[in-house]
Amino acid sequence: MLFVLRMLLMGLHFVLAGVLGLILGICRPFNPDNSRLCARLYALPAMWILRLRVRADVTSLMDKPPSCVIIANHQSNYDLFVFGNVVPYRTVCIGKKSLKWVPLFGQLFWLAGNVLIDRGNAIRARRAMLTTTHTLQHEDTSIWVFPEGTRNLGADLLPFKKGAFQMAIAAGVPIIPVCVSNYVKHMHLNRWRSGDIFIRSLPAIPTAGLSMDDMPQLIAQCREQMRECIASLDRQAQTA
């Protein structure tokens, strides 16, 4: 019963947050800080409705340089609410083009200045990547990417795609990994307190001076650091 009530409230919240976010986007279209404000608009009420407690240690994320590439593990659609609590200033996200057709959310995602990529069209995807590289270099804006490319449903990290690392190397900006504990399989949405979620950002990894030949090693380094961090966060979650 509690689960059903929460889902009804979440549906109502999703619509209201979408309307408010759309108004914000129309008032200041494509402002790169719209993403942070919209993320909070979705996340803060959602965490209260779901009674999920987020414990975040994201000092390196809040103190990030003006431009960087942020990479995070991607578990479920709830990531919108979970990570929404820690999206930093002037940070936009990369999403698939089909998001544009999600009522309200898709339109505000676009107006918030986020980047929509047509993954089925290699030429257009490459052009979008070049645009984000220019953004990183010249507009004091950071890019948030889920390098797995799809949800892993709380399992081990999937292989990382190259896009985020190509952008970081091309722009010469650091990479900041952000890790969240495996919460999907441990949420208890039919209880009053649904569980604890731990988030931690890792120190920035510089890319200045690297070439595309260094990319495989960079990907392996980031993925291994994130795997170790997620395992540590899972241990914290088990004892919370």
Automatic annotation (TrEMBL):
Transmembrane segments: none
Enzyme Commission designation: 2.3.1.51
Entry GO MF terms: 1-acylglycerol-3-phosphate O-acyltransferase activity
SUPFAM superfamilies found in the cross-reference section: Glycerol-3-phosphate (1)-acyltransferase (SSF69593)
Entry keyword annotation includes Transit peptide: no
Keywords linked to the UniProt accession: Acyltransferase, Lipid biosynthesis, Lipid metabolism, Phospholipid biosynthesis, Phospholipid metabolism, Transferase
Pathway terms, separated by semicolons: Lipid metabolism; Phospholipid metabolism; CDP-diacylglycerol biosynthesis; CDP-diacylglycerol from sn-glycerol 3-phosphate: step 2/3
Enzyme class: transferase
Catalytic activity: a 1-acyl-sn-glycero-3-phosphate + an acyl-CoA = a 1,2-diacyl-sn-glycero-3-phosphate + CoA
Segments forming domain Phospholipid/glycerol acyltransferase: 68-183
UniProt record similarity statement: Belongs to the 1-acyl-sn-glycerol-3-phosphate acyltransferase family.
Domain writeup: The HXXXXD motif is essential for acyltransferase activity and may constitute the binding site for the phosphate moiety of the glycerol-3-phosphate.
The protein's name in its UniProt record: 1-acyl-sn-glycerol-3-phosphate acyltransferase
Lineage: Bacteria, Pseudomonadati, Pseudomonadota, Gammaproteobacteria, Pseudomonadales
